Amino acid sequence: MRIVLLGPAGAGKGTQAARLAELLGIPPLSTGDMLRAAVLAGTPVGLKAKEAMDRGDLVSDEMVVEIISDRIGKPDARRGFILDGFPRTVVQAGALDALLAGSGLALDAVIEFKVDEAALLARIMGRAREAEAEGMPTRNDDNAEIFRTRFDAYRRQCVPLSAYYADKGYLRVVDGLLPRDDVTRQLLPFLNC
Length: 193
Ligand code: AMP
Fold this sequence. Notes:
Strand order of the largest sheet: 2-3-1-4-5
Bound molecules: adenosine monophosphate
Number of domains: 1
Family: Belongs to the adenylate kinase family.
CATH superfamily: P-loop containing nucleotide triphosphate hydrolases
Number of helices: 8
Subcellular location: Cytoplasm
CATH class: Alpha Beta
Order of helices and strands: EHEHHHEHEHHEH
Strand content: 5-15%
Structural class: alpha/beta
GO molecular function, one term: AMP kinase activity
Largest sheet: 5 strands, parallel
Pfam families: ADK
Shape: globular
CATH topology: Rossmann fold
Distance between the termini: 11 Å
Main location: cytoplasm
Number of strands: 5
């Protein structure tokens, strides 16, 4: 199956992507994780992406489309994948459709995680505090001000994505504020599980 999870940062996409990946035996692919790894490794992509990521802005469409195009071509993604954090713009969505169509493939489901902004802020701040308390490294972009920039970027650029996928008849919506297990239960019927 080829699945896209849509929703702002902190909406629980990563958690559900990991669960679905285990259930379906296909890899979860997060462009945020790939970009953070590139930043840590100091690759040319990482160096280019770091500034936009630290500000909470999106990196260029070209950069993420290239990363995803390479990644979904790998053998472990042949049977399918769960995209978390990609696409984030209509341009990226069009590029994904074209990439898949080039191999005679299409998406199976696009699932949007709906969450309220204030509840999301509390969740993100909680995640940062927990990581700090455990002595884990905190993400540069997990603070209230950067969160607002990221949420604004989401609203501006990602909301049109819902319309894009709704027009194609792919879009399904879950309540991202429910407990994790309830969100998983909401997801499964969309995947024929
Ligand atoms: P995430 O972990 O998905 O919240 O992503 C962290 C950051 O990586 C975002 O705030 C963006 O700067 C960048 N990023 C991740 N995925 C994308 C994407 N599909 N398009 C543009 N920027 C992205």
